[in-house]
Structures are given as C-alpha cells and as structure tokens.
Amino acid sequence: MFDYDDQNIFAQIIKGEIPADIVFEDDDFICFKDIAAQAPTHLLLIPKNQKVASIAAIQSEDVHWLGAMMILATNIAKDHGLNDSGYRLIFNSGEGAGQTVFHLHLHIIGGKKLSGQMV
Ligand code: 5GP
Hints:
The protein is α+β, with helices and mostly antiparallel strands. Helix content is 23%, strand content 21%. The protein has a single domain (9-110), classed as HIT family, subunit A (2-Layer Sandwich). The protein has helices spanning 9-14, 63-79, 82-85; strands at 22-25, 29-33, 41-47, 87-90, 106-110. Strand 1 and strand 2 form a beta hairpin. The mean pLDDT is 97. Guanosine-5'-monophosphate (5GP) is lined by residues 9, 20, 32-36, 44, 92, 98-101.
C-alpha cells in the first residue's frame, strides 16, 4: 500500500532535480515551502535518506531519526515565529487522508489563527 517510488516529486527536490524554496537543510533533512500554502507559513519537513512512503510505513528501528525529525520541526516552527501564534504538525497518511506525495513529509502550518475544526 505504501510502496516507495524513487521518482516521487520530493525525491527529485532532495536530489536538486527540481527547485524548491528551501528554508533549512542538513545531511539528514530538508525543509521547504509548500507550493500551495494553506497558511502564511506552510512548510514541508522531509527526511533525505529514508525511503519511507508514509508515516504508516515506519518501523520500530526508525525511532531515532523520526524523533530527531520531530524535534527539528519544533525548532523550525520556533525559528519562523510560530510559538506565539501556535502551529500544527501534520502527517497525512494514505489517500483517504489527503496524502498525494508518497515520500514521508511533515506539514508545519501556522502564522494565522487556525480553525478549531480538525476535519
Ligand atoms: P500531502 O497531501 O501528500 O500530505 O502533501 C503534499 C504537499 O506537497 C501538498 O501540500 C502540495 O501542495 C505539496 N507539493 C506538491 N508538489 C510540490 C512541489 O513540486 N513543490 C512543493 N514545494 N510542494 C509541493
């Protein structure tokens, strides 16, 4: 169900084959602006070295990098001034939840008053 395709759009961004508005990058992660932002700040945080299609596909051995990814997300949110206004970290898992790109990614969304409605 969550097969990984090396040619997915985020894999191409990681390889620099297509451009993105990158706000953070190190050896393990890349974070860039969502092309169709749904809030004043809408970033996508992505592991660079993991061929994982979805949060539903992670295994227990992924705990270390996934933990690092979550801590990094909170630091990026803080750096973008989102601590005061509040923000959401969202993994969409599966087409039923709106997942369209099957390379694991975390949405960092904020910069405005977010609806109390979750769905
Ligand atoms: P999903 O719906 O899979 O959870 O999130 C995928 C996100 O990737 C969407 O919010 C979509 O706007 C964004 N996206 C899709 N293609 C591109 C692209 O080529 N560049 C960037 N920066 N974002 C993209």
